[in-house]
Every structure is written in C-alpha cells, then in structure tokens.
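Ticket 4471: requesting a sanity check on a complex prediction with fe (ii) ion. Repro inputs:
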Amino acid sequence: MIKILLNIFLLAALILGCNNIEIKKNIIPQRIILNLTEQPTTEIAVTWMTNDSVINSQIEIAESKPWLNFIDSTKLFDANSEKVITDKNKNIFFHSRIVSNLRPDTKYIYRVGGDSIWSEWNQFKTADDNLSEFSFTYFGDVQHDVKEFSSRIFREAIQTLPQSEFWLFTGDLIDRAEFDYQWQEFFDAAQFIPAIKPIVLTAGNHEYVDTLINSEEIEFLADLWKVHITQPKSDIAGLDETVFTFVYQGTRFIILNGNEKLNEQSKWLEQILNENKSKWTIISIHQPLYSMSKNRNQIKTRNAFLQVIDKYNVDLVLQGHDHVYARTYKLHNGKIVNENDKGTIYITSNSGTDSYFLESVNKNLAVKYENKLQLFQKITIDKNILNFKTYTANGELFDSFELIK
Ligand SMILES: [Fe+2]
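Returned structure tokens:
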C-alpha cells in the first residue's frame, strides 16, 4: 500500500514538474531584435516575444566589461507587454522597451526576460556623437523562401561586413506579414544577428494586408509587423514606425512609406530636408521612383517625392520592390547629369529568390543593371567620401562606386 502511494506521489510530482518545465519553456525570450530610435547615440529599442505571458517582463543592461563583473553594475528596466492573436488563433506575447540615457560610442551588454527566465547576454554599441566613419548594410526584398535561401545571405553579410553598425531593409522582409510562421522563418534565417545589430525596417507592400470591408478592398499595415519591432513614432498620424528620420554619426536617414499618405509624406519630407544640416542624406523607400523591371512604373511615388528629392539633392535613394539590381547614373529631374553636378543616385536591389525581367522604361538611366542575383550592400561614410559596395550572396564584389563632396 505504501509503495502504491509512493508511486502515485512520484507520478504527481513528475507531472507537476513537467508542467513547470513547459511553463518555463513558454516564457523563454525569442525573436530578440534591436531597433534604432531617433537618438542612436543614447538610446536603443529592444523587442522580444514569448509564447506565454510574463508577469515581470524586464530588460537588464550594463556597460560591457572584459570580465563577468559587469553584473555588479546592471540596471533593470520594466518592459511593456502586449498579447497578440496569430493567424492560427494562438496567443503570443511581445515585450519592448526603449532604453535611454546610454553613453555614445559605448558597448553595452543586455539580456531580456523576467519571472526568473532570461535570454543569453547580448552586446551592441551605441553610435558615436562625433562624425566618425561608419558603415551600414542594406538589403532589398528578402520576401520568399526566407529560411531556405536567405539564411546564407544574412550569414554571408555578417561575415563579409562584421563592422556594419546596423542593417537597413527596404521592405518586403517576408511575403505575408500577417502569417506568424513567416516571421519565425526570418528569425530562423537571421538567428542572433538582430539581437546584436540594430535593424531598420522600411514598410513594403507585403507588410500590408488586403481585406474586404463592406465589399471594399482595404489595406492596412500588418499587426504582426508592428509588434515585432519598436521604431520611432511618426510626425504624420497613422504612420508610426514607418515614416521617421534619424541622424547617424552626421548622416541623415529618412525612412518613407510608399504605400499610403504620400502627399502628407511629401510635405513632411520637404520640411525635414529644408532643415537638414547633414552633409550626406539617404532615403529608404520600398517602391522605386524609377521603376526598373518589366511593366512597372511607380508614377505615384515619383509624383509625390521626385521634385523634393531633386530640389534638395538627396545623395542616395535605397529601394526594393522590382526584384532586380539597378544603380542609376546621377540623376536630376529625370535626366543624367555629370558626376560632379548635383543630383541623386537611385539603387534598386534584391536579396531574395524572386527575379523580374530586365525590361524597363527607365533602363537607359541605369549604369549597372542585372537580375537573378541575391545581393547585399555595404555603405561606408567617412567625412566627404561615401563608398558603396554591392556583394553577391556568395560573397563576390558585384558593383561599387564612390561619391566625394
Ligand atoms: Fe514589393
């Protein structure tokens, strides 16, 4: 009898123990991602996901040190948490926090979690408040077959360009932003990289969801896109996290949303460029101003932004959407200008597996024009020199140019 009772007790303990392990497993932080804020010298935004709710969701952070004694000087910050219901009707939980009052040009170490379950410690560096040299990596559409075929491009990029300060994507990161499994594919492909390199995302058309409301087709930014990241609020109502600007070590970055409210953005862009004091200015937008593939012509984007970009001589416009590689000559008002004249270079690039045709009404504007390539780009800015390099997925240099002013 005693033996039977003992066995029942052991079985109950085992079941309870398993449940406890299961509960703990569900709150292990996943999909940890850093994003830049408008103050990259003193702030960082951190977002992560858990499969169950966390009572005390927190981030723990310190200046990094060579030894483990950084633990003596960590600070704890509470995170905001929200529940999201996925397309498979499953509850998942996102946690985020902007950490402020950081020191410029400083390496920090952090972990995320709470309720005694924590992530690994990760490290990142804040931007320098001097105008020192820096590089960043730019990716066009990733979009399809992300785990299967984009893993190699992320891994090649981190090995080829480990010194890049952040990764900028020009949109269509995945094909259906409302499907949770595709987000998992992105994090399977990128692994730990978003936890150590801040990511800047641009909203493409595949970040939007089409739906019918009262038989009218409505498009809206996918909730799952918004909860996975923490990007700056927008001066334009309804465009939070998709239209914003920041200055990184002296260079002005402007992120536009080619999907909606283009006229409002055009006015805002004019105001930003009018007040802009940076030597170099770079715009990221998904839909190219000069379309570069067959049967495409983004008249709406061009009508909204071209005049302003020409007026203020933006240096580079980084784009995606057309699934080809195209680098234009320096252009002003739709015409090719001399290298030393004022004008803008437009890049269309592609990181994914979809490739469109090289027949475009604008093909004569392109210096370099190619399809069927998975690519990533390194842009380095050092005072009066902007150096641009495009690499293939197998690490070969495909294109390069330099701007000097
Ligand atoms: Fe697109």
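Notes from triage: The mean pLDDT is 93. Leaving this open until the requester confirms.
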